[in-house]
Amino acid sequence: MDANTGQSSGGHTGLKIGQYIYHFQYFDDKIFHIVRENWNEFKYIYNSLDNRNIIKREFLLNNDNYEKIRSYLNEFYLIQQKQLEILGYLKKDILFLEGLKSNSSVNITGLGYFNPIIDSKNKLFNLSPSESKIANTQLRVNNSSISELTYKEINNIKLSKIDYIFSQDIFSQNIEDLLQTRMALFCILNKCELEESSFIKIDSYITSKDKNKILSKWKVVLPILYQSIINQIKNIKEKSNKNLLISVLRYYYIKKSIETNSIYIPDCYNYNSNIIENENAEDIIFVEFKKSIMILFKKGIENYLKNDFYSEEDFTYLEDSSNRMLEISSIQSTKNQFRINYNILYPSKEKNIILDEYLNSTDNLSKNLKSAKLNYENFYNKMKILYPFDLIRENCTTELFTTLNRLTNNNQKESIDLLGGFINSKNNFTFIPFVADFKVGSYYKTKTKEQIDSYRLRSKSQLKNHHFPFWIDLKESNTITSSIYKFNSNDSFFIFFTDDTIILRPILGSVNLIGGLGQLTLGIFTLPFDNGKNFKRGVEGSLFSLPELFFFNIRKGSFINSKEYENIFYEENNN
User: Fold this and answer.
1) Nearest 5°: phi and psi at 274?
2) N or C: which end of the chain has fewer CB within 10 A?
3) Could you tell me if 272 and 124 lie in one domain?
């Protein structure tokens, strides 16, 4: 992927396998993550929104070698995800022990949807005597396990990029698992009222036809879900029973939706959701982003109505797209913030719980808290050492080659058998994406290089089919007269595009530099009134104009177009 301002300003590299693309990103946690994303959505972000050309080389592999690489990348991704999950629970250990020590409440994931009440006459689940006996036995065992739960120090968890970490006896994870199971069993045996503020109603965002289709499907799904819950009760595991709680939650809100003839969905955002400031509801970026979310929601409804059976994936898709749609649609002049989550949304709203109401053991809290903090720091430091980021030695490009070489044990012969050649990620400027591309074409077995043009170049080509080409080149060369580009808050100030010209780049870059310096000067005077926005954009505009004086282009502008999003999202061809 070509350079542009913002993330990956020096360019980016990924490895597409089937419908997914694997790439590396440096997160705020100071850990270099391997990221697995849907190719069409990734392409929209980099190729359309970020306006980058994508250079593509297709590997010539037999089926066995293709599957070997796919399995290895997927396994590596899952290994790191498990390690990050453990890191999160080790951090929760500290929070939970601090809560116990100060007798204060802590947030338990997934419990925020229910208000438990004892009502033997209006139970939602009509259990048979044998099913009721099993559920009551499971609840007694669960209560006993909670009361006997104690903190255990975890030492010497070995971290590697090739070994999966299986179940760990982590204090906070055990608490969450047991309390989630307890809530699910209680709501099955007694009755729970739904917490109204933890649900969203989507009737006004769907057609009456789609609403009736969803309710009809839910009438079919309800007995299937009921039987699934009964089966889960009979096979409760000691840990990780979050699925049982989610199944019970879905049964409750489906039942309510059918009874009230309205579509209710759980609010899936939790305390960890990021808050985005929306300064201007009329900004083109926000307007088009909102349209894109509505497209995602429409796709979610369509996918959900394709079949009549209960599918975990379809339910998650419906809940995820509904939450994002309603959150962005709720923006008004009085509300300039909205929540955003970069992972798939599932029902995870927390509830404040006083832990010592359930746990009997509160001995040695100071000692255990100290141990928990040490465990977290040790594990976190190991993660940073195992997944470091360095702009030159270990970046998004070099790490892909390092990963492929690890698959072949850094053996040149094995690499040649698998890929057709061997590339050392540490040598000869391989950290630069376009150099790496050249090496891939030279050493690996690949097809001829292809280019997926950026959004702006594609749009220019389409206009040239209907208008005089010279006039289109002139009109679209700058941000002032362009019909393709609309100035937006994502971009610093600039006048001329220089990504499609080399000879004129220094001259046009000089104009951009003057414009950037002009906005910088203006920003000095408006500093007290705009919190430094003009000044910041002037600095960025000047900074990204400098490489253009030396024939290098980084800035390409950002483009958001909901129609483009729709085309890519519905695209059948994943190439």
Assistant:
1) -75, 145
2) C
3) yes
Does 284 share its domain with 136? yes
**242-260 helix and 171-189 helix, angle to the nearest 10 degrees:** 40
> Is residue 455's pLDDT more than 60?
yes
pTM of the model: 0.87
Amino acid sitting at position 404? L
> 493 lies in which domain range?
467-569
Token pair 């000089």 is found at: 510
C-alpha to C-alpha distance for 395 and 149, rounded to whole angstroms: 43
Number of structural domains (the chain) is: 2
- Across 225-318, the runs of DSSP E, i.e. the strands, are 264-266, 274-277
Tokens standing for residue 300:
């979610």
d(CA 435, CA 426): 12
Give CA–CA dist 177/185, Å, rounded: 12
Q: What backbone torsions phi and psi does residue 174 show, to the nearest 5 degrees?
A: -60, -40
Domain final position from 357, 380, 403: 380
For residue 21, the cross-strand partners are: 16, 37
For residue range 91-129, what is the model confidence (pLDDT) as tens digits? 999 999 999 888 888 999 999 999 888 766 678 888 889
Residue with tokens 């005089």, as numbered in its chain: 468
- What mean pLDDT comes out for the span 194-203? 91
Q: Determine the Cα–Cα distance for residues 561 and 419; give it in Å rounded to an integer.
A: 38
CA–CA distance, 541 with 509 (Å, rounded to integer): 10
CA torsion, ordered 120, 126, 128, 129, to nearest 10 deg: 0
| Claim to verify: residue 334 and residue 476 sit in the same structural domain | no
Q: Are residues 371 and 497 in the same domain?
A: no
